[in-house]
Amino acid sequence: MVDEIRARSGWRVLSGDPERYGASGAQILAIYDNFLRFAVSVLLRCNYMLLMEMPPKKKGNGKRYFELKTA
């Protein structure tokens, strides 16, 4: 049953005995990490924080770099 729940949730336990989950058998430090989703969320958060910190750069004419030039 524990293996079924673990397989469906996608979470992986990095430390601790998987046969003895619960308050009585849990170790003090058990790191739970959903590796793929965690990595993606960290990248998205870093990009968001970077964009919030840096104001858009402007050229000499006042237009932003990412705007398309129209002829």
**Distance N terminus to C terminus?**
66 Å
List segments where confidence is low: pLDDT < 50 over at least 5 consecutive residues.
24-32
- The total count of strands amounts to 2
Largest sheet entry: 2 strands, antiparallel
What portion of residues belong to β-strands?
Answer: 5-15%
Can you list the strand order of the major beta sheet?
Answer: 1-2
Enumerate how many helices there are, as a single number.
2
Helix content: 25-40%
Whole-number total of structural domains:
1
The assigned structural class equals: mainly alpha
Q: What is the H-and-E element order?
A: HEEH
User: Mean pLDDT across all residues, rounded?
Assistant: 59
Radius of gyration: 23 Å
How would the global form be characterised?
A: elongated
Topology:
Elements: H1 2-9, E1 12-13, E2 32-33, H2 35-53
Description:
With 71 residues, the chain is mainly alpha-helical. The chain has one domain. The chain is built from two helices and two strands. The protein has helices at residues 2-9, 35-53; strands at 12-13, 32-33. The protein has a two-stranded antiparallel sheet.
